[in-house]
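Problem statement: downstream parser choked on a complex file, so we are re-checking the raw output for the NAP run. The parser issue turned out to be on our end (a line-ending mismatch), but while we're here, posting the original submission so the record is complete.
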Amino acid sequence: MPPSILLTSCVPSSVLTRLKTVGQVELATDHLTPAALQERVSGKRALVCVTTDRIDSAVINAGCDLEIIANIAVGYDNIDLAAATGQGISVTNTPGVLTEAVAELTWGMILSVTRRMVEGDRLIRQKAWKGWALDFMLGMELSGKQLGIIGPGRIGRAVAARAPAFGMEVVFASRSRETVVASEKPLVPLDELLVTSDIVSLHVPLKPETRHLINRQTLARMKRSAYLINTARGPVVDEEALNWALDERLIAGVALDVFEREPEVHPGLLQRSNVVLVPHLGSATHETRVAMADLAARNVEAVLQGRPPLTPVVQADTKP
Ligand code: NAP
């Protein structure tokens, strides 16, 4: 009897073909509620899921035959890791293959918000543009400014690598020195980064200690002329506090790819011209999504064939 695999999203045909050589694939075409996930995971030996699937302890208990949970994402905050590890289930993610895509989107968002591109697009479509003027829709130039990167991991460093092209200086803030050893960029305390940076870009994983890392206190430390960019995870920013900070004009603007309660967005943010909203597109390129799905499938293949997974969520990733 071939092992059965539950797949919660459509994947490219090449990836589906790979999975079908490993086992019997059951594809859930609609988004699965937690109850439906519990029902469908029963009897499966592998679960291939995405960041919007909540793989909590109830799902893991229902999937008592699971050998692997392969998340098609680099973050794994949607999975109860302790419950999975307790059941001896391998949990894998897809690090590395999406780094460039997220870094590119981050720069798109930096440019969009500082040069008011989305705001300008809306103005033209509303037929409200009266023509060129010397003082019209001025933004902030990047050249000579400081980019503060919180979380100098794969994506944070890829964003930093593009900064010289825009004439920007980079500083990093991290909870440890390990991830910046190979970098020549200065590592500064978080507060110093907030106080001195013109752009603050978030690249930390969502963990208990990074939830609401950006809150009323940290927002109040930023320059009034500074911009905040979030392509990490929504709950890293307290959206209520962000809305307050924008009301108080404590920062100049914000660009968000991720939100606290996706797909909902804080209503206050929707009204503002200095807020750029992107519907969680960080890794959304053809190339990257194929690579992510393929890596997840290769992890399933390895584990179901008795080999170690290629990209397990390792203990070092889960350190408190
Ligand atoms: P990574 O290589 O593991 O980098 C994470 C970085 O965050 C590391 O430098 C880590 O350094 C740092 N960090 C962890 N906890 C921290 C804390 N409390 N304070 C400050 N820094 C902290 O991960 P990655 O591949 O760059 O991905 C980063 C995150 O991007 C993912 O976890 C995911 O949530 C998000 N992401 C979003 C999208 C999207 O579609 N928008 C796509 C992919 C990824 P230390 O451990 O040394 O502190």
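For whoever reads this later: The chain has two domains: 4-95+286-304, 99-277.
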